[in-house]
Design goal:
The complex is a heterodimer of chains A (91) and B (304). Chain A has helices at residues 22-40, 71-82; strands at residues 45-48, 56-60, 65-68. Chain A is α+β, with helices and mostly antiparallel strands. Chain A has a domain at 44-82. A three-stranded antiparallel beta sheet of chain A has the order 1-2-3. The model of chain A has no long low-confidence stretch (mean pLDDT 84). With 304 residues, chain B is α/β, with parallel strands linked by helices. Chain B is built from ten helices and 15 strands. Chain B starts with a strand and ends with a helix. Classes of the chains: A alpha+beta (91), B alpha/beta (304). Chains A and B meet through helix 1 and helix 2 of A and helix 9 and helix 10 of B.
């Protein structure tokens, strides 16, 4: 773990299994960003995972931004912002 | 290191089953951990061999620290090339196997060392139905099983046994059902047709869980599916008791398994051309098949 920024905090989230080569990992990361935004859009939130900053940046449409470690942390933060968990089955 | 969890309600026949395996030498290379809810160990007197007893609390709650410490010790010895490759954990009759898997996966050391064998849950043919009627825990144990072993089948009438088996199939549709007598596997008896028992709703449990199936179209992106599933489990993990399936990924065939919110680190399986991949089973309550498919189409496939 990097002492300055604390990343990577964990051995990797289960969703990252299945991508072994660097190319697959990049593709997976882009796909992850796309699906996260598909899920967040109806709730007025945007995520970006540009690669310059470790972790995922989660922002409201007014610009308030939080950086989270990984996917589980993202859903937790989204739950905090919305006041309820984001349920993909709703709506 | 592989960890095989042997669960089941109090008195279901876990120790008898294990004892027979030890007797036949099937577990000669394995370390055996026996957890008991009571302070005074009894089972280890029945089990001879390289067993380690963990009395004083059920491993899924009060005894969790003891279990984690024992497994760490074994994992450490294994890393030095001295320990066993296979560990069998006989849980206490009050343990929820799902909670034990969660505890192992939450441990930063063990998560790197342990892979799970299919969870075996022993069900007593004499008392099984009564336990399932009254005890949420008994239902959770059956729900967490990959393999169900029905014991004492010779002690009840075939019609009662058939009803128990039908009830188990309904509670845990993904699990294989085997039969044992005095710990020895026996072929499935001929059973009359029977309807599953209509289990009463318990105060703490919702409606009975139902199986659902999602067939992933060819070329479905694993990451897209996984991200969607992670959001789904975060929101509905208490209702989705189990998700299981084999999914295609760039790295190969991946075995995906969850128990409530806990996802086992997916395992890459050997290639097998004959296998039918891409079907994922969901067992849960309060979630409908159509609702699941609609959400999958919208968020994973991007069709709105």
């Amino acid at each position: 773990m990097c002492n300055a920024c604390g990343f990577p905090a964990r051995p990797g989230v289960w969703t990252e299994a299945g991508a072994e080569t660097a190319m697959d990992r990049t593709r997976a990361r882009l796909m992850q960003g796309a699906v996260i935004n598909r899920l967040l859009r109806p709730h007025g939130l945007v995520a970006s995972d540009g690669g310059t900053v470790p972790g995922i940046q989660l922002a409201t449409l007014t610009g308030a931004t939080v950086i989270v470690d990984d996917l589980p942390a993202l859903w937790q933060e989204v739950e905090r912002m919305l006041g309820r968990p984001l349920d993909p089955l709703a709506g | 290191m592989r960890l095989a969890i042997l669960g089941g309600y109090l008195g279901a026949g876990k120790t008898t089953w294990l004892r027979h395996r030890i007797h036949t030498g099937a577990l000669a290379q394995a370390a055996i951990l026996v957890n008991e809810a009571a302070e005074i160990p009894v089972d280890d007197a029945l089990l001879r061999g390289p067993t380690l007893s963990l009395p004083g609390g059920c491993a899924c709650c009060t005894g969790r620290a003891g279990l984690v410490a024992a497994l760490r010790e074994l994992a450490d010895r294994r890393s030095r090339g001295q320990g066993p490759a296979h560990v069998v954990l006989e849980t206490s009759g009050l343990a929820d196997p799902g909670a034990i898997i969660a505890a192992v996966q939450a441990d930063p050391v063990l998560v790197h060392h342990i892979r799970f064998d299919p969870v075996r849950v022993v069900v007593d043919a004499l008392h099984g139905l009564a336990q399932l009627r009254a005890e949420p825990l008994a239902r959770r144990q059956v729900g967490a099983a990959d393999l169900l072993t029905v014991t004492k089948g010779d002690a009840v009438a075939p019609v009662d046994l058939a009803r128990l088996v039908a009830t188990l199939r309904r509670l845990s549709p993904g699990a294989a059902i085997e039969f044992a007598r005095m710990g020895e596997a026996v072929p499935a008896p001929d059973l009359p047709a029977a309807a599953p028992e209509d289990l009463p709703r318990l105060r703490t449990e919702g409606p009975p869980p139902r199986p659902m199936r999602l067939v992933l179209p060819q070329g479905t992106d694993w990451t897209a599916f996984a991200v969607w599933l992670s959001a789904l489990l975060h929101a509905r993990g208490d209702d989705l008791l189990r998700v299981k399936g084999v999914v295609r990924t760039p790295a190969g065939r991946l075995l995906l398994q969850t128990v409530r919110r806990v996802v086992q680190q997916p395992e890459i399986l050997p290639e097998d051309a004959s296998a039918r991949d891409g079907a994922v089973v969901f067992i849960g309550r309060g979630v409908g098949q159509a609702q699941l498919e609609r959400s999958f189409d919208r968020f994973v496939l991007g069709r709105s």
